[in-house]
TrEMBL record:
Pathway involvement of the protein, from the record: Cofactor biosynthesis; riboflavin biosynthesis; riboflavin from 2-hydroxy-3-oxobutyl phosphate and 5-amino-6-(D-ribitylamino)uracil: step 2/2
UniProt repeat feature Lumazine-binding, residue ranges: 1-97, 98-194
Domain Lumazine-binding: 1-97, 98-194
Full protein name: Riboflavin synthase
GO biological process terms on file: riboflavin biosynthetic process
Organism per entry: Pseudooceanicola albus
Entries under Pfam families matching the protein: Lum_binding
Amino acid sequence: MYTGIVQTVASVASVTEHKGFRSFVIDIDPDHLEDLKIGGSVAIEGVCLSATVIEGSKVSFDAMTMTLERTNLSRLAPGMAVNVERSAKMSDENGGHPIAGHISCTAEIVALKTEEDGAFLRFRVPAEWSKYIFDRGFIAINGASLTVAEAEGQEFTVYLIPETLRQTTFRDYQPGDHVNIEVDHQTKVTVDVMERTLERLMPQYLGGR
């Protein structure tokens, strides 16, 4: 479990292709590696991955083909930057919202401004996921906990404070790029339960006409 508060931005040191998976070596600030062990969970661009090798500040992670297809990790190349968050402890303060690191979908950036004054990002999500995104609702984008400012149809907008710009990789993105989206779990459960309830009730209403 994660909080959606990105702890550091790290650099991709290398990428190695294997049959059925891809390995990433991420060079992470040692200050954020305390007590990390093999098998420990780390969110990379919002994707929950397990550490497979730790050599100094360089940590290796493997991503299966399914993960690469569902996320934007396939775009990563040496020298690129990624958002990093270690898994949360029960005693940690949660300044964001609970995040599992299980990506719902990717969203295309349709517009953005990354200057500090009035910075924003606007996205387009697949239609089947737009029903879980509401004005003032929580959403995780590349692992960062953010609040939806406006949502209409398949598009939604978030605004960014200077600290978010400083502490994340959003400055590196351009229109047309894709980001990882994790919809709020509680919102998803609520919407799904309401839909299923209405589906069960609808035949009764229709039969009574």
